Amino acid sequence: MGRRGIMLVVSSPSGAGKTTLTRNLIETEERITLSVSVTTRARRASEIEGVHYHFISMRQFEIMRDSGQLLEWAEVHGNCYGTPREAVETALSEGRDVLFDIDWQGTRQLFETMRKDVVSVFVLPPSAAELKARLERRAEDSEEIIVKRLRNAAEEIAHWSEYDYVLVNRDLDKSFLRLRSILTAERLKRVHGTDMDGFVGSLLDELKALAP
User: Fold this and answer.
1) Cβ atoms 32, 26 nearer than 8 A
2) CA-CA distance, 136 to 174, in Å (whole number)?
3) 10 with 32: CB under 8 angstroms?
4) Distance (Å, whole) CA 169 – CA 84
5) d(CA 79, CA 77)
């Protein structure tokens, strides 16, 4: 039986484990794809067009934004990012789930545009000290950047209660199992999407014929 797909939003402060969780979900689950955003910033050498982002001009972005072609968008450090509506709508109508790695501001916009389709999960670190330790273990940022990320984390975590589900990522494997369980449960809830009404109607007709 067919169903409409789910928009699965996963948000967290940097270092809480969101990237690993979402990557594992993409590698493990069938019929789920990562939403590819458009951006006006220049492509980095390691990035692939259509895989990491769709790289477009500011003029193209403005046209998409002003004509309602973006489900959500934001400006970050002078560059614009957004989620194209058409690709998401196509995936959902085909029964495929779409995974979003966005912050609370983008999530709010998705709530405004497509709330019925959105399932939101916020990932929390087990403690502030552990979050700082994880950022330091990555060895990607200077101490100044780490402090900035911790300040940003305080702002992001303040919005945890706006989400449908919350995971405290004490253990990555257990958190991943819980995330998969959320997806499974929501898929079962959303089976009403396309032909369930017709199936139930036929089932009732058959029962009436067997036991008039």
Assistant:
1) yes
2) 23
3) no
4) 30
5) 6
Q: Is pLDDT above 80 for 160?
A: yes
Beta bridge partners of 168: 124
CATH fold of 7-35+96-210, please?
Rossmann fold (3.40.50)
The label of the residue with tokens 């983008």 reads 106
Is the per-residue pLDDT at 174 higher than 90?
yes
CB 180 within 8 A of CB 28: yes
Helix, strand or coil, per DSSP, at residue 7: strand
pLDDT of residue 94: 92
Q: Distances in Å between the alpha carbon of 66 and those of 35, 61, 62, 70, 90?
A: 20, 9, 6, 9, 21
What's the one-letter identity of residue 22?
Answer: T
Domain ranges (residues) in the chain: 7-35+96-210
Pairing of strands 70-76, 79-84: antiparallel
Sign of CA dihedral 165, 4, 181, 73: negative
Are 169 and 17 within 8 A, CB to CB? Answer: yes
> Cα–Cα distance between 77 and 108 in angstroms, integer?
20
- What pTM value is reported for the model? 0.83
H or E stretch at 145: helix 143-157
- The distance of Cα 196 from the centroid of its chain, to the nearest Å, equals 26
Query: Among residues 56, 46, 50, 11, which one has the least CA distance to residue 33?
Result: 50
> For the packed helices 143-157 and 128-138, what is the interaxial angle rounded to 10 degrees?
140
